[in-house]
């Protein structure tokens, strides 16, 4: 006889798969861009001045999607709070997938000059616009279907899309790198992961078209008509919750992109490790993110999501002090230890967000509120992370990069304190 611990997951399997696939595509799309930006986009799409300048420009194009994400959050949040979670999630996934797929067909700077980086930036912006509506909708799809006492564990399922998407992206780049020469990888091999994204997007659309609207949204719609302008209602009556939520998510973005995009660029340039070796090290480290997310989700239902997030922010503050020296040590084992520790801690500042962030807002503006807070926090914690880390590393080594993580932990802890008694209808 199965225990009732598995029953809610079995009963809501399609819903949870739909929420997981979407965030897996989100992180797959984002990380294949981050990996390509760290490895090849600099010399392929930007004029030559110095390798460091090309890498900086490449990371700046990476940050464009974070700027687009809040606009996507407002756009898709508007429809998600007015017409429903399901159809909005389908639209956001399609925009995200088409933008990613088209990157595979872009000409390089050597072919068309300045048109190449312009097209790259336009598609990157399109990626971010679609992604702006993805996480909030996926989280609501899970938590608004959760039975009593299971909200955090359901909310952690879309969070598992981060390591799933990372493993798919990183593993594919690793296989391509092992199969191709450096010249072939730079010439055409990097395009394969962008082409492969169509498979994941197709799977996500197939699953999402088979689900129903969430019960909480249906009940809210039956009780009152939809708000005409959800973002207006959010700014008038829930500005403090939005502000607090924005700062609370800074740490998870900072940890992820410093442990992935920046670490990959640093490891393959300054530390001179082979690309395939460092990709394998990151694959081994990402398993600790899975462990952190699952542990934090279970503990959040046993205690509270806010309490577990507080533990994670405190750990981020301390971990940042060790991250920089370990990453810059030159020892592959210590580098792996730094990445594993950072990603495990990330599980505690990311896993509970699926339950905690939506709890700050009533159902009628929840899609907009959760999406805006999450994506605005992404600008502070994610867009600036690789660029700032690259600059700090050149100024004073990786120890300064670790301080960046410590500051991110302080900002997220401040956000949690600001929203320590969230109220939602």
Describe the structure.
By secondary structure, the chain is mainly α. Helix content is 82%, strand content 0%. It contains 21 helices and no strands. Helix 2 crosses helix 9 and helix 3 (51-82) packs antiparallel against helix 4.
Supply database-style keywords.
single chain; 425 residues; mainly alpha; Growth Hormone, Chain: A; 21 helices; 82% helix; 0% strand; globular; disordered N terminus
Give a quick rundown of the structure.
The protein is mainly alpha-helical. The chain has 21 helices and no strands.
Question: What is the CATH H-level superfamily?
Answer: MFS general substrate transporter like domains
Question: CATH fold name, please?
Answer: Growth Hormone, Chain: A
Structural class: mainly alpha
Give the overall shape, derived from the CA principal axes.
Answer: globular
| CATH level-1 class | Mainly Alpha
CATH architecture: Up-down Bundle
How far is it from the N-terminal to the C-terminal residue, by CA?
38 Å
Q: Helical amount among residues, as a percent range?
A: over 70%
The number of helical segments is 21
Mean pLDDT: 87
**Biggest sheet: strands, sense, closure?**
none
List the helices and strands and how they pair.
Blueprint lengths: L6 H5 L1 H33 L5 H32 L2 H19 L5 H4 L2 H18 L1 H10 L7 H9 L1 H19 L2 H8 L1 H18 L6 H9 L6 H8 L1 H10 L1 H20 L5 H28 L2 H23 L4 H19 L2 H4 L9 H31 L1 H21 L7
């Amino acid at each position: 006889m199965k225990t009732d611990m598995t029953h809610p997951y079995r009963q809501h399997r399609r819903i949870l798969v739909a929420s997981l696939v979407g965030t897996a595509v989100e992180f797959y799309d984002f990380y294949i861009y981050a990996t390509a930006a760290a490895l090849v986009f600099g010399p392929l799409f930007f004029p030559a001045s110095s390798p460091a300048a090309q890498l900086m420009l490449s990371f700046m194009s990476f940050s464009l999607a974070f700027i687009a994400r809040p606009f996507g959050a407002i756009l898709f949040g508007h429809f998600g709070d007015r017409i429903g979670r399901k159809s909005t999630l389908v639209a956001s996934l399609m925009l995200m997938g088409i933008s990613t797929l088209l990157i595979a067909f872009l000409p390089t700077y050597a072919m068309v000059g300045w048109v190449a980086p312009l097209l790259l930036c336009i598609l990157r912006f399109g990626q971010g616009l679609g992604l702006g509506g993805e996480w909030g909708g996926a989280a609501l799809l899970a938590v608004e279907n959760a039975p009593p006492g299971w909200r955090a564990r359901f909310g952690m399922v879309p969070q598992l899309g981060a390591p799933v998407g990372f493993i798919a992206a990183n593993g594919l780049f690793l296989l391509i790198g092992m199969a191709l020469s450096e010249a072939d990888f730079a010439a055409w091999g990097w395009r394969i992961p962008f082409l492969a994204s169509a498979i994941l997007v197709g799977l996500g659309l197939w699953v999402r078209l088979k689900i129903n609207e969430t019960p909480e949204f249906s009940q809210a719609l039956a009780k009152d008509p939809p708000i005409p302008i959800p973002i207006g209602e959010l700014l008038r009556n829930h500005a403090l919750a939005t502000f607090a939520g924005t700062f609370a998510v800074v740490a998870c973005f900072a940890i992820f992109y410093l442990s992935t995009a920046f670490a990959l660029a640093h490891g393959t340039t300054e530390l001179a490790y082979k690309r395939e070796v460092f990709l394998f090290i990151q694959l081994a480290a990402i398993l600790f993110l899975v462990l952190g997310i699952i542990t934090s989700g279970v503990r959040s239902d046993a205690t509270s999501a806010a309490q577990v997030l507080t533990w994670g922010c405190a750990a981020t503050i301390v971990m940042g002090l060790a991250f920089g020296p370990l990453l810059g040590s030159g020892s592959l084992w210590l580098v792996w230890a730094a990445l594993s520790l950072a990603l495990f801690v990330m599980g505690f500042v990311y896993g509970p967000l699926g339950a905690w962030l939506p709890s700050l807002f009533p159902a009628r503006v929840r899609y907009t509120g959760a999406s805006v807070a999450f994506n605005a926090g992404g600008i502070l914690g994610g867009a600036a992370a690789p660029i700032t880390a690259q600059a700090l590393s050149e100024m004073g080594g990786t120890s300064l990069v670790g301080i960046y993580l410590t500051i991110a932990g302080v900002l997220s802890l401040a956000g949690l304190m600001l929203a320590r008694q969230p109220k939602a209808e």
